[in-house]
Amino acid sequence: MTEIAPAATAGTPRNALVTGGNRGIGAAVCALLHRLGYRVMLAARDGVAAQQAAAAIAPDVVPVTLDVTDAGSVCRAREVCGPVDVLVNNAGVLLDDGAPPSGVDLSLVRRTLAVNALGSWQVCQVFVPDMVSRGWGRVVMVSSGTGAFSNGLFAGAPAYSVSKAMLNAVTVLLAAELAGTGVLVNAVNPGMVRTRMMPQASRSTTDAAGDVVAAVELPDDGPHGVFLRHGRPSGW
């Protein structure tokens, strides 16, 4: 787990929005950000799940109903949250585990891309302009080594692998656009983490959250447009 120092924020805490925050890595990220002094907005597609997960962390964690695949839902979430300083795009699905690339159901591919890549892209388009206008922000994409060409795309879950490769591409493109604006955009590879997607994995969600929050806590001259693994840039 990457070491995290408490956020040095004077006055009003920074606002942090985490998609897919109701369980797994997202819930652990919300808990850690809250502990570090951020005003946390925990977003989930299911509003009741968001409320329950937020209450389990602390009374002041704000639950937000947000379906990343629904443009109207994303805009309504912006009305609830207002401008945010930190956006963690964590919402994701794994629907095609074990399917071969030559035979995977393309409807599963479309659904996976809609959440894992296009969903994050859509949320960025709604929330990032506020960061740019205020001259400061952090965008963190929770990606995967399965989508890294340097690591080797994973044929055992082709839709998931392609969706994360696309998410990495969105990270690079958005980072190039926002260079010099004060908004840092990076992707994080948390490794194989023990979640509902991968219950047999050995790495804890707490350790993975440490890596994600390290990208949130980067200094203003920190890495931008890179793929981080254990806090260090790695190959796309």
TrEMBL record:
Transmembrane segments: 139-160, 166-188
InterPro entries on file: KR_dom (IPR057326), NAD(P)-bd_dom_sf (IPR036291), SDR_fam (IPR002347)
Superkingdom per UniProt: Bacteria
Annotated ranges, domain Ketoreductase: 14-192
Keywords from the UniProt entry: Membrane, Oxidoreductase, Transmembrane, Transmembrane helix
Family (UniProt): Belongs to the short-chain dehydrogenases/reductases (SDR) family.
Full protein name: SDR family NAD(P)-dependent oxidoreductase
Species in which this protein is naturally found: Plantactinospora siamensis
